[in-house]
């Protein structure tokens, strides 16, 4: 470092002096002192007496114990663990526009799919707080996708590029761990937060053997999905069948409502790989190609409809075990997207 970095440790209002600050703040200050003369000048300053909010440069670094409150909002800050880790590992202190509390996501570029606006905002905030970058689009630089659906273009692209697809619980787990330990968000320790291959999918079958049906039920249930014995246009996402079952009632209903029809091997192979594989190699000949999993198109918006249990099967409900006649489907019940 050619120029000194001024590192100011802020004493919160509830503490009378630095001795009452958290152990982590004091350890971080000690780490800075060990580098005094090497480009770092550290000092303690009470929050209640600090008045300088203008004229600051990238050489002015503030360390606070909590990322909240008026003081936090007015300054760009780093956390004590961020300081300690940077000094221990001999890497530069972050100087970007966002506050950085830890460096658990340093070097990562994260995007999200299928989540609410509020969830995405929280992910963006936490990623920045952990030294990572957040993007609204999936690019060549993207390293991780956070999603709650396998029915999106981002998911398909992520699988094609072998990018990890994580649940939003990954963000919180890494955040909580990084407050206590010097960890890397890309570590295999967080593999249990990967998005299951059939996450939030409802799957049904038609015309396959009892043995194959039992296997499909088991794999779907164990890997984040839900198995249903009946087809219902508002909730069914995938119909699993053999090539000689294309005359079944469920198959006809799937065609009418644009649902994906695939071979049982799609379920088996996807479960083995740990991701929902593209459907192009598993699609039953003549079946719908509207699924984003096969053709990279926008997801069927009916996947987001509320799932309502009816006392009486609606007209767009097919349960072959009850010999429901497909002719009862009324055109006025058809979902129009």
From TrEMBL:
Instruction: Print the keywords alphabetically.
Output: Repeat
Check the UniProt entry and state the signal peptide residues, or none.
none
SUPFAM superfamilies, sorted: BRCT domain
- Say which domain of life the source belongs to: Eukaryota
- Decide whether keyword Repeat is in the record: yes
Annotated InterPro entries: BRCT2_TopBP1-like, BRCT_dom, BRCT_dom_sf
Question: Domain BRCT, which positions?
Answer: 105-171, 193-284
Q: Name one GO biological process term.
A: mitotic DNA replication checkpoint signaling
Q: What Pfam families would the database entry show? A: BRCT, PTCB-BRCT
Q: What is this protein called?
A: (African queen) hypothetical protein
Q: Which organism is it from?
A: Danaus chrysippus
């Amino acid at each position: 470092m050619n120029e000194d970095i001024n590192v100011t440790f802020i004493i919160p209002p509830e503490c009378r002096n630095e001795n009452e600050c958290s152990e982590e703040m004091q350890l971080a200050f000690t780490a800075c002192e060990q580098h005094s003369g090497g480009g770092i000048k550290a000092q303690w300053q009470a929050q209640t007496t600090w008045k300088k909010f203008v004229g600051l440069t990238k050489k002015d670094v503030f360390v606070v114990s909590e990322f909240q409150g008026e003081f936090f909002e007015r300054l760009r800050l780093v956390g004590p663990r961020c300081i300690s880790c940077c000094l221990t590992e001999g890497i530069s202190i972050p100087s970007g526009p966002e506050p950085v509390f830890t460096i658990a996501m340093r070097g990562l570029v994260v995007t999200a799919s299928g989540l609410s606006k509020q969830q995405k905002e929280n992910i963006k905030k936490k990623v920045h707080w952990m030294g990572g970058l957040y993007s609204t689009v999936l690019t060549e630089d993207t390293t991780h996708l956070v999603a709650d659906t396998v029915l999106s273009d981002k998911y398909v692209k992520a699988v094609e590029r072998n990018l990890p697809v994580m649940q939003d619980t990954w963000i919180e787990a890494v955040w909580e761990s990084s407050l206590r330990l010097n960890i890397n968000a890309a570590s295999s320790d967080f593999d249990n937060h990967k998005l299951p291959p059939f996450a939030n999918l409802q799957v049904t079958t038609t015309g396959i053997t009892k043995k194959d049906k039992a296997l499909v039920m088991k794999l779907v249930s164990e890997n984040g999905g839900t198995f249903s014995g009946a087809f219902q246009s508002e909730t069914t996402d995938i119909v699993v069948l053999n090539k000689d079952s294309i005359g079944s009632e469920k198959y006809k209903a799937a065609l009418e409502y644009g649902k994906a029809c695939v071979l049982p091997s799609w379920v088996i192979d996807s479960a083995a790989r740990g991701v929902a594989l593209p459907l192009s190699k598993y699609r039953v000949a003549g079946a719908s190609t509207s699924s984003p999993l096969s053709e990279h198109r926008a997801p069927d918006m009916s996947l987001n409809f509320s799932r309502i249990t009816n006392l009486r099967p609606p007209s767009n409900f097919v349960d072959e075990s009850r010999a429901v006649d497909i002719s009862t489907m009324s055109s006025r019940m058809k979902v129009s997207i």
